[in-house]
Every structure is written in C-alpha cells, then in structure tokens.
Amino acid sequence: MNEPIAARIDIGGILDPRSVAVFGASDNTDKFGGRIIYYLTRHGFPGHVLPINPNRDTVRGLPAYPSIAAAPGPVDVAILAVPPQALLDAVAECAAAGVGACVIMTTGFAETGDAAGAERQRRLVEIARASGMRIVGPNCMGLIAPRAHMALTSSLVLEIEAIRQGRVGLISQSGALMVSIFNRAHDAGIGFSACVSLGNQSDLEICDVLDWMIDDPGTDIICLYVEGLVDGARFFRAAARAREVGKPLLMVKTGRTEAGVRAARSHTASLAGSYRVFAAACRSLGVLLTDDPDGMVRAADLIRRWPRPPGAGIGVLSPSGGGSGIGVDRVSEAGLRVAELCAATKGKLLQVLLPPQADNPIDLGGRRSGDSVGVAGQCAAIMAGDPDVGIMFIVLTTVPFYEATTKALAEAALASGKPVVVAVTPGSAADGPRRVLREVGCPYFDTVDDGLRALRLLTARHESLALPPAAERPAGPAPAGPPPAAGRLTEPEAKALAARYGVPVTRETLAASADAAVAAAAAIGYPVVLKGVARALVHKSDMGVVRLGLADAAAVRRAFGAVEAILRGDLSVGAFEGCLVQEMARGEAEVILGIRRDPQFGPVVLAGMGGVLVEIADDIEVAPAPLSRAAARAMLGRLRFWPVLAGVRGRPPLDVDALVDAIVALGWLAVDLGDRLVDLEMNPVFVRAAGKGIVAVDARGEIAG
Ligand code: ADP
Ligand code: MG
Hints:
By secondary structure, this protein is α/β, with parallel strands linked by helices.
C-alpha cells in the first residue's frame, strides 16, 4: 500500500492563503472567472492574486499567466469555475504545480447521479489524493473568509460594500444556500468568522471544516446546513467536542421527509440517514436542529449574545391585548412554556396595571397611571426580573409614543441580562421603532413566526445546558440467560428476551398439540388467546392466526386446528412450531416499544402510539440507548399521544412509570445485544391505569449472527 500523501495545506491555510490563482480570470464580470477576481480584489484580499488566462496579459491590472505552470508558485489556493470538460486537466495541472487546494465550482460530478459523473469525481479525488492537494467541492459556491478580507466565489451577493467580520461560523453543503444565508445575515448586521460551501464533499467534507471551527478561537458558534454526512459517527464525535468546548452547534438538515431524502440524494450524492434517529442523537448531544437556514443564523446571533439563557419560561409582553393574546397562544402552541409569575412579581405589576393585566402575558393597555412610556419600561423590568422568566418575548404592535415606548421596553428588558426577542408586527409604520431597536441593540424579527423560531432555539439551548442525566442500570440481579440464536425471533422468543430485562409480558405457553393447548389454557385460566407460531410469520392477525377471547376447551381445540391448517398451508411463513396460548390481557391504551441498531448511530429505543394504526398515527419518538428514566419520560412527553397517557377528558392517568421502566430496560437490552441487535419490537404493549402496570401482548425481533 502507498503511504498516504501528507496534505499540502490545512483548512486554516485555505481560509487565509498567501496566494490565490483564479482560472478563467478576465475583466468581464459577466463571466464566472471575471466575477471571482472582481470580488477577490474588490474586498481587499491582501495576498498575491494570480489571474490564469492564456488570452490576456493583464486582468484588473494584474499580470496574467497562460497556465498555472507558468505562474510563480507555490500557489496556496486555486479557484476553478471552468467548463466541465476542461476541469480535470486543469486540476491535474494544479496538482503538478504544487497548488495547496482547489476550490471547484464546476458541476457535473457525483451530483448528476449517473455513472459518468461519479467516475469524473473519482478521478478528481484520485488526482488530489496522489498529490496531497486538497479539494473544496466540486459543485460548491466557494468560500468567504472575512478575517482574510477574502471572497472566493462568483456570487453577486459580494456586491456589498464590505464583508462584515463576526464570530459565527457557517458551513453549508449547498453553495447557493451559503451565499443567500450570507446575504441575509449581512443585511441583519451579522458577520461571520468564515463561510465555507462544500458541495459534493469529494475530498474535504463538512466535518473537516467543523473540526477546524471548533478549534478556531475566532469562531464562537457554528451553523451547519447539511444534506448528507459523509461519516455520521465522525459528526457526532465533533458535536460532542463542540459541546465540551462550549461552542453551540446549530443545524438545518434536509432529508427530514421522504421528498427531502430524494432531493438530498439527487443534489449532492450523499445519502440522508433516518432523520428521526439523527434528530434523537442530535438532541442527546445538544445540537440545535431547526428548519430554516436564515432563521438558524439569526438565532445563532442571539445565542452568541446570550449563550446561557437562564430558563425556559417565556415572559410575553405587548402594548395591546391582540399582541399579548397572539404571543401567548403561539408560544404555547409551539410547545414552549409561558412563565408563571411569582406573587411578588404580580404584586409589583398590580401597582401599575389593572388586575387582569398584571400577569403573563402583559397587555400594557390595562395600565393604571397615564404615563404610558414610563409604565412600559417598569412593566418590562418587573416581568424580566421574575425568577421563572428565562426569555422575554415582546410582541410590538403599534402604540402611542411608538418610538419612546419601544425604547423604554427594549432598554428595560435588556437591562435584565436575559435574552430578549421582539416581534415587530406592523410594516413600514414601525420603521422608526425598528431603528430604535437597532440603536439600543435589541434583536427583533418582522414576524411572530421568526420570533418563535428564535425562542424555540434559545429554549433548546437552555435545555441543552443541563447535563444529560446518567443512564443507570436498574437495580437488581443482572439479566441472565443464553444468548439468543441468530435469525428471526418468534413471538415467545422475543418476549422471553425482553422479560429477562424485566419487561412485563403476557403469561403464555407454547403448545405443540391441541391437547397441550387445552392443558395450558386451563393453567392460565379462561378466557385465553391462541396464536400460531412460525418463524417467518409477520402479520399474524392478517393471516387469521390470532384467536382472541377463547372461553373453553372446545374453543381452544377448534382454534388450534384452524390455525395449524392455515400455517401448514402457507410455506412462506416457515415451519409450524405450535400455538401460543396466552392470557387475555386488558389495557387502557396501546403503545409500541422497540429497539434497533442504527448502522450509523448505534442502539436506539423507540416508543409511540401503538396498535394497528401505528403507521397512520406516525407518532413515534426515538432516543439513543441506554437512556435514563428522565430521558425515557421526556421521550413519552414529546409524543402527540402523551395526553392519552397523562389522562385527558375524564380518563385516568395511565401507568407512565411502568412504561418508563420498560423503555429503560429495553435500552439496556439494546446495549447488551450490541452488534447482534437488528431490531426487537413490541406492538401492542397494553398500558393500564396508574399503578396497574403494563403488559406486552405481541413481540417480534431479529438477531444478527
Ligand atoms: P399481529 O400484530 O402479528 O397481527 P398481535 O399479537 O399483535 O398480532 O395480535 C393482534 C391484536 O390482537 C393485538 O393488536 C391486540 O389488540 C390483540 N391481542 C393480541 N394478543 C392479545 C392478548 N394476549 N390479550 C388481548 N388482546 C390481544
Ligand atoms: Mg402486533
């Protein structure tokens, strides 16, 4: 095997190069190369710029070279937006000339999805790997390095006067999204430490840049737009390290939906993992997932300013009843918590507000005294001072003395040191207040939705600060028994395995004959359930081999004969192994519990609404195993189905504690099975009223060799 060639340059070098060669550079800004060199020189890059163009002596007053070989070297970075047919030769010339890294905007590689594109990309990487030259792209939009006054992109978003410097790092798989995010952020006054688009990640990939940003002293917080990860395990190692060094990681990941998965595949040639498992793993590492790239960067700016929101309770304040009503409704609908003001806070508010308004939300319309500006400031200060208020949310509708009131509200809220989010609801009528908010340095959004996204991420950040509760093995003797054999598990085998870990299952006996079934039924007590057992059997009731509510020996005998006939008549289900006779169980709700090993993220536990509607309900939560009781409970709490477990509309609260026990136990089973676990699923698990326990009535599973 060849020795791996050492890289000629690292990410830091690429973001702060001494020299940059621009292929196809010209004075014509209608051309890619023309725009690249224009933006590179316009924003004051202090390094050496080398235009490569066989048809020009000079470009923008700089001496041009007919080829990279003819240019004075060594060149740190070359940027190429040349036509696809010329690209490989150009890259080979760069490698021969000792170029450190090529930033390749050219398209037509693995993202095409065809064999020719994949082959072109393979050759590209081969050239790079043989020389130690690095590649950013292809199919990217370059990079922007504000600290080096360097824009290496053809995007017209660089028409701006100056590149803002900042402390937010941006890594985007999509080039087009990177530049549009950059542009929006610029307009919002947010600067970056570096913006890098990776395109097809053919050589340098997202995690290379991420690892660099985690160590970069100029980056405080990192935003990622990801379609597919080259190495999921590496990403989670990086995320854990970001958490250790205290750098928040925000992320938009496409591939959340089936359509998104297709888009992600065709876009950049990398496969999206199962989003649910991914999201669960992110949550456990404090990675803040969101849905909108611009919103992500706006929120990053807030979290950079308030990295430790003191609580998740939200104080809602508005100059109007409409604003406070909308604010509080939307906050609770978003699953966020409306803070509960303490008696002392309410007492202070009562001195300036009328009784119905002296609570959360505050409607400033109901004030006692006439000094509306003064009262606004007082109320904001009092509310923000409440111990349960972690974040202030001001819904700024119009109000008399608009600018003065805005100033008073914002200054008083900011003085608390807690995060403040303002949603400015009017249009141009609020341009003055917007200016005031900018002057006092108060973040604002133009829609309640955008404000809510920021609130959600601030809340998630607060929650991520709490150390995850340690997963501890339940007390008692360690589960004992022989390791399960490889292959599919029948219902009784899967249940027996779960039962070793303390998961309650139906009392049952596998009977090989009708006589044995009758004897088993007598021992269990009527009525009983009888189910056919065969190894490759999947949906038992669909095949008519689940017989419920059998009341006597004659019924058991008849059921046995019928089920045996069905199974012996269908070779696809495997050999008939007998009938399972089990107690007839009862419950108030049906839940699905399962474990599986994700190839990228390892063992996970899932829980959700169970029964025959499981696919339609699609109400499933996932968490990495092992997990603590607190994590198991939180997982149940995130289900839409949760109110059924908690007790609604006169229904009794159900035995959540027993469910939590089972989830924790299954997590340990998943851990102990290790690589041998494919999956194990129990559907349904009957949940009874609080204190009355749960019981798994069905189970299936598969074990690897
Ligand atoms: P499958 O899912 O393979 O069709 P199940 O064993 O889940 O078969 O049985 C189908 C349904 O029958 C269950 O969803 C449940 O409602 C009911 N059932 C199964 N076993 C029992 C039992 N022991 N007690 C009460 N109901 C049961
Ligand atoms: Mg079932």
